[in-house]
Amino acid sequence: MSLIDRRGGHLDSDLLRTFLAVLEAGSVSGGATRLLRTQSAVSLQVQKLEDTVGQRLFRRHGRGVSLTAAGEQLLPVARRVVDTLDRTMTALRGGQGASEIRFGVPEEYGDTMLPGILAAFTRRRPDARLFLRCGSSAEFPRMLAAGDLDLALHSPEQVSAGDRIVHREAAVWAGSVLHDAEGRRPLPLALFDKSCWWRERCLDLLGRSELDHRVVCTSESVAGIRAAIAAGVAVGVLPRSALTDGLRPLADGVLPALGDTDLVLTRSAGAPAGVTDQLAAIVSAAFAPGGLPRA
């Protein structure tokens, strides 16, 4: 499919797909990986598209690429054309091209990162059905091993060879903005249930510091931990990005240092290749500097 312009040139749909792949991946090399092409071939296609429209579409910088004003103008057209072609092909095939994927994501990212990921994935694969598991990531390794999930975003105690690290951030002791629970002794703690490895890590660190402490609240959900902390019932441990209104990170030195936590993507052995690769690329882009491109 092509769109004819007034000067006799045309916008080829393959070039528009390349444009979208580079944008969503955040770099030419990432777009090449997504399209299963060489970086030089993708660079040539981007150049051809820019020659066709007579303007630069991407700004190149150290972190990858971003859109110029012309690229912003082209973006909704490219998405509409590619989506129309994909939906038409799916309809003509009677749905035979549809795919399914089961994705696990920690609940603390459900109202922050997840909406953008879902929007980008739907644009990329309008034919696919997504089964979402949004909850405690402690159960994700078991579900991946059992084949109940195809792809999962989680923070394991140890990163495995098959894991893709998409984000690294500090784990912090969190307290209420209105209360001083960290000054009480024994120190009141709100921790995840026993299936979470962070529970044992925290208790071990506190034990070695010989700080008197007591678990006063246990929850399977991030919402429960946040509520207990915000109410001043206890202090707890959260990724820094999971802090919300009513919570504050405790000052360094108040409690034992927790270090960083790795957020990884893990896929099951039987995950469908194409759709899993596409969703994994979108999740990785969401956590990269600059995040996903605007809708």
What do you see in this structure?
The chain is of the alpha/beta class and 295 residues long. It has three domains: 2-92, Winged helix-like DNA-binding domain superfamily/Winged helix DNA-binding domain (Arc Repressor Mutant, subunit A, Orthogonal Bundle); 100-166 and 262-287, D-Maltodextrin-Binding Protein, domain 2 (3-Layer(aba) Sandwich), CATH 3.40.190.10; 169-260, Periplasmic binding protein-like II (D-Maltodextrin-Binding Protein, domain 2). The protein contains nine helices and 13 strands. It has helices spanning 13-25, 28-35, 39-53, 69-92, 114-124, 140-146, 197-208, 222-230, 273-287, and strands spanning 2-4, 10-12, 58-61, 64-67, 100-106, 129-135, 151-154, 164-176, 187-192, 213-219, 235-239, 247-249, 260-267. The strands form three sheets. Strands 5, 6, 7, 8, 9, 10, 11, 12 and 13 form a nine-stranded mixed beta sheet that branches. A two-stranded antiparallel ribbon has the order 1-2. Helix 1 (13-25) packs across helix 2 (28-35) and helix 1 packs across helix 4 (69-92). The longest helix is centred in the first third of the chain and has 24 residues, at 69-92.
Largest beta-sheet details = 9 strands, mixed
Gross morphology is elongated
Tell how many strands the DSSP assignment holds: 13
Average pLDDT, rounded to a whole number, is: 86
Structural class: alpha/beta
> SSE string, helix = H, strand = E?
EEHHHEEHEHEHEEEHEHEEEH
Oligomer: single chain
Percent of residues in helical segments?
Answer: 25-40%
Q: What's the alpha carbon Rg, rounded to whole Å? A: 23 Å
The CATH architecture classification of the largest domain is 3-Layer(aba) Sandwich
CATH class of the largest domain: Alpha Beta
CATH level 4 superfamily of the largest domain: Periplasmic binding protein-like II
Enter the CATH topology name of the largest domain: D-Maltodextrin-Binding Protein, domain 2
Number of helices: 9
**Percentage of residues in DSSP E strands:** 25-35%
